[in-house]
Amino acid sequence: MHPERDHRRSRRRVGAGLLAASFLAVAALSGCASDDGGAPTLTWYINPDDGGQAEIAKRCTEASGGRYAISTSLLPRDASSQREQLARRLAAGDSSMDIMSLDPPFVPELAEPGFLAPVPQNVIDETTKDVVEGALAGATWKDQVVAVPFWANTQLLWYRKSVAEKAGLDMTQPVTWDQIMDAARETETQLGVQGVRSESMTVWVNALYESQGQGIIENPGAGKDEVELGIDTPAGQEAARIIGTIGRDGLGGPGLSTADESASMATFQSDKGSFMVNWPFVWPATESSKPELMDDIGWALYPRVTADQETAPPLGGIMLGVGSESQHPELAYEAITCIASVDNQAFYFESNGNPAAKTAAYDDAAVKEKFPMAPEIRESLEMAKPRPQTQYYNEVSTAVQQRWTPAEAVGENTPAATESFISEVLRGERLL
Hints:
Strands 2-1-3-11-6 form a five-stranded mixed β-sheet. It has a four-stranded mixed β-sheet with strand order 8-9-7-10. Strands 4-5 form a two-stranded antiparallel sheet. The protein has 19 helices and eleven strands. It is of the alpha/beta class. It folds into two domains: about 220 residues, Periplasmic binding protein-like II (D-Maltodextrin-Binding Protein, domain 2), CATH 3.40.190; about 190 residues, 3-Layer(aba) Sandwich (D-Maltodextrin-Binding Protein, domain 2), CATH 3.40.190.10.
């Protein structure tokens, strides 16, 4: 969607309290131009990383030839706090929001009320060329590219070769959740999954639905009164069976209810480790902390729910957006084109472990040396599906997190209870 600038203010739904809470931050950060009238400094709100975005900002500043400089401003570490800060600033008309690193689920929520400046067609043509399907889907809202894919992420199925061999699994062929659950039982090992009440649970639930061809929301973009949910469906029953079984049978280990990505990696690295669904950061992290395990680690595509239907792995990553109140949107998009170049995406992949959105980056020699599973990551990203694309994502995700945790309590009534709860929240009949 490309909202008209003249209408963006009237379309915002912002309470007085939200504006007041944002006022001081806006006043402090609204200036973008240099004091001496020289080239403007663009503020790039970045998510925490290992310094890669700051280095790219430096590179693109130098490449601009003095047209602009880029300074970075660090967002909170967790996704919900990032969303809150970005939404508050944008709702208050903060003119410092020149460039923003956006989690894909934020895109519809920020695009719908006109918080994102339209992406020029020449930038779309340049930055979406040869981009993996999952990343392009995450940058699109209502059939319009509203953000620029920077890097894309996906989960693979990581496995201990010794355990797979002991269980008799042929990992050159697609495997199902039931197969790895059975293998964990037979070998008395534990699965590395994320059972914590956080965005990680929404990622898992959504992947189980999408791997059966079912969306949690069936009509993305619909208003509150028209949203059609696909939660209380046969796909929901199968998703609940898998998560509930892993919880009740202890297959995720005793700490499943608090297991995030790092905790599930620790389970995988332990003597009880077997199979794990997780992002590619686990490869360099294990190489650094448990190098003795490296020869025993293999990887494959995300597990299937049913043997005869292709998997739909989770999609993560970062999109780049420009705030609609930025004083320098043209320069911001010029900078974004530099940030999202193939060379910078390859650098970011190799140095920070964040997979590229552009396919050409996977041919980079340093990437292939650092990540031997790069071909599988690229293949997974072509199959990956985004989390529910809706301007009401916060309501949907929070409701899923509440109803699908702890895992041992998930059962046949969970899908119906979740769908009913979300519907009531959207109608204003219940609070999250």
